[in-house]
Amino acid sequence: MYQQLGSPTYGNLTFTPQYAKLPGRAASGTIPHIDCTFKRKSIVVTSTLALIQVRLQFSDSSTQTFSSLSGLTGTFAGTSGNANKDITNCWVKSGTNASLTSGNLGEQFDFTATNIKTALGLNGTYPYPGGSWSEYISSVQSSSTTGGGSGSGDIGYAGYRDMYGYLTWINYLQTQREQAYDTTNLWQTSEQPVGALKDASKYFIDYIIAQQSNDQVGLSIYTHPNSPGALLEHALTTNLAAVKTTLTQRQAGHYNANTNISAGMTVARQEIEARARLRTFRTMVLMTDGQANLPGTSTQAKAAVITEANLAAASKIKILTISLGVDADTSLMQQVADITGGLHFIIPGNQTAASMKTQLENAFRQIASTRPLKLVSGQ
After folding, report:
1. Rounded distance, CA 212 to CA 143, Å?
2. For 227, what's the count of Cα atoms within 13 Å in the CB-facing half-sphere?
3. Which of 177, 227, 332, 363 is the most exposed place for a label (fewest CB within 10 A)?
4. Cα–Cα distance between 337 and 107 in angstroms, integer?
5. How far is the CA of 28 from the CAs of 25, 32, 33, 94, 232, in angstroms?
6. Rounded to two decimals, what is the model's pTM?
7. C-alpha–C-alpha distance, residues 268 and 281, integer Å
């Protein structure tokens, strides 16, 4: 994805995340240059002259001093009662630098987000309308190391807390600034599982075009912030190339990160009811990679999906459902298919994008056998 965004360069970030290294003053005679790498629970200190003393201050304002040191580098962390505490500041005594500070403590390093941003060279303008380098740094610092799930916690759970680089930045874009008005060109990347879904959907449209069957296809996208919570991107049309182009230019959470499945179904059903040609077979393809969470509570959102499925069945619209990835609500999608006399396809997560794409293409191939297809509704 980083390469698909053009492999941009910001500050001194590298692709592989690294801990922030805060540089001290320039060396001059017996005044050394010191670098201090912040790892939250520990720091790595490197000096051009022998280390004499390192003092740590912790988030509870307690301190611990390490003296009688030797060598040019060392790793320091709280011990005994200070073990596993977050470090907020340190003072490093090396050469004669203590003579330049009050208290004879040596050079001070403050591990604030502002100082870390400066150390990373990220004081310039942020490249997208939504988000900021400060927010990115905060997301990496605040991530949890105790469990997975959505949001910035994944960074810590993967072992990258307080580590900065394009890998964690891409994660930040997808979990906190995924919408089109925030990060304008995420649609150009192969973010997953949506990337595999888009590729397979394009394959499906190409298949329909190749059959020259004069099928009509429409496109409903959920979730959308305006009423009714979904957007009819394309009314039923034989211009399938235009539908394909729009599919290509949408990203995960394009308009809204929530999942209003019933709204997408409503828009699709109403379009079919209003514009489908007489005596044509009515089919809706419903695709989701998540759990219904709008409108209202999760329970209310799921009930709304079932209500829509019954309305579709009353309008003789068969719904073919696709559950994509580890978070999809397969039980709900099976109910929708059963109510409308459709089929349910499960594309499991925890596999390569290529495998997902192949399975999606197979599903669409089976869907095409129910032709003619009338409307595609997707996330």
Report:
1. 52
2. 0
3. 227
4. 67
5. 9, 6, 8, 12, 67
6. 0.84
7. 15
Where b means 16+ CB within 10 Å and e means fewer, 265-294 reads bbbbbebbeeebeeeeebbbbbbbbbebbb
| CATH topology (fold) of 21-114 | Immunoglobulin-like (2.60.40)
> How far apart, in whole angstroms, are the C-alpha atoms of residue 335 and residue 59?
52
User: Which residue do the tokens 């698909």 mark?
Assistant: 4
- Strands 375-378, 282-288: parallel, antiparallel or unpaired by DSSP? parallel
Q: Are 175 and 151 in contact (CB under 8 A)?
A: yes
Which tens digit of pLDDT belongs to each residue from 197-240? Answer: 788 788 888 888 887 778 899 999 998 888 789 999 999 999 99
For the chain, domain boundaries:
21-114, 120-187, 190-378
d(CA 269, CA 309): 9
The second-level CATH assignment, the architecture, of 190-378 is: 3-Layer(aba) Sandwich (3.40)
